[in-house]
Amino acid sequence: MLTPHRDDTTGETTGETTGARAEELARRWVRQRGRLVGVAYAVLGSRAEAEDVVADCWLRLVGADAAERVRDVEAWATVAVARRALDVLRSARSRRESYVGPWLPEPLLTGAAAGDPADRVTLDERVSYALAVVLETLTPAERTAWVLHELFGVPFAEVARVVGRSPAAVRQLASRARARVAAGAARLEVDPAEHRRVTAAFLAAAAGGDLGALLALLDPAVVLTSDGGGVVSAARRSVHGADRVGRFLVGLAGKRLVGATARVVEVNGGAGFAVEGPSGTVLVGVLGVTAGTVRRVDLVLNPAKLPPAAPGARGSEPGGLSPRAPGA
User: pTM of the predicted model, to two decimals?
Assistant: First the structure.
């Protein structure tokens, strides 16, 4: 059970948190902070919002512990973060409906590309970027139920308290979410080595403006989605079909990404790519690959969703998008 517990053995049921206790709470919170941001991110699809949720719950933990000692800090934090993330997601849905163009989840640079280890998010290995996109099709309650039960094994009775439904209703929510996730994510499962190989070949073709090479990689029914948030130029609607997607990519590389450097990086635990200019990262992309062909192209250009330049980024060659070898 992940119900928040109080310590009934110490006799400390009320009163202010002592300095020693505050230090203990801080240490325990820091140890699990990356995991908690991962919980909130899985619910929200936004690292910025996830960071805010976790900061808010830290303050709530301090206040709750001062009133009555919290015995199981990890359980308390998981439930509190999930509940707060659900509240934020419900309010964010209305804002996202008025978002300019398609809304994509915020990509997380992971592995060596993540930079400072202290800032890294502990992301469940199943929360690939493709899955994060699929989770956007769920209702807030379905998404929260799936994340808590499927990823973290939280019992339905506890999930019911978080989402404000009965355990029976939550079972139905989770069942619908599981079916949608299975249908959406299964089509995009790919061997990691193949995913990285196709991503590298895609980058080389796009950087070189080689439409023929791109068309050889793109599935005839490929769909490209670009998220500029109304801040930078991006396609306001998804682009469909290999020819249209290929020409869009060649035009993007030749006009808007002149003087930038592209390289394969790890995004949400899988292969992706980042394009970096003199002022930082200007694009992060992820491909959905099936049987060696690209079925989805997701491009995030909204500066609010982009990380700083990935560690090791180099200056580019003048005149166009310059690809870097994987791992360079």
Answer: 0.81
